[in-house]
Write a structure and sequence with these properties.
Strand order of the largest sheet: 1-2
Number of domains: 1
Largest sheet: 2 strands, antiparallel
Number of helices: 5
Low-confidence stretches: 79-98
Shape: globular
Strand content: 5-15%
Number of strands: 2
Distance between the termini: 31 Å
Radius of gyration: 16 Å
Length: 111
């Protein structure tokens, strides 16, 4: 993984390196780390989240991160850096439909 220019992401790298997570869990954590870095690069998170891991993991930073992550704009495919629905492909990103009321069923993803 490429070294980040943001001190908070470098601190996150050190934390992740010390976890001793299995390969599959580490891939998941690295995916989130990459998304957080891309959100910082976009200027989408509070400025303090650039410098401090604690600030990066606070609610004020995680709420905009989650919105962006759910929209798909932070995904990295490994093939040019953008998900298929961003850029040349005109398909809409998947939409998650949540039940209107309790007990109405599971959330559904449709294309």
């Amino acid at each position: 993984m490429q070294t980040s220019t943001f001190p908070s992401v470098r601190a996150l790298d050190q934390l992740l390196d010390g976890l001793g997570a299995g390969a599959a869990r580490r891939r998941q954590l690295d995916m989130v780390r990459g998304e957080l870095g891309r959100a910082l690069e976009r200027g989408a998170l509070p400025v303090g989240a650039r410098r401090s891991l604690q600030r990066l993991l606070e609610k004020e930073a995680l709420e905009p991160y989650v919105r962006l992550a759910e929209s798909g704009v932070l995904r990295h495919t490994g093939r040019g850096g953008l998900p298929a629905h961003v850029g040349g492909d005109q398909r809409d990103p998947p939409q998650v439909h949540r039940p209107a009321a309790r007990g109405a069923g599971d959330a559904r993803v449709r294309r």
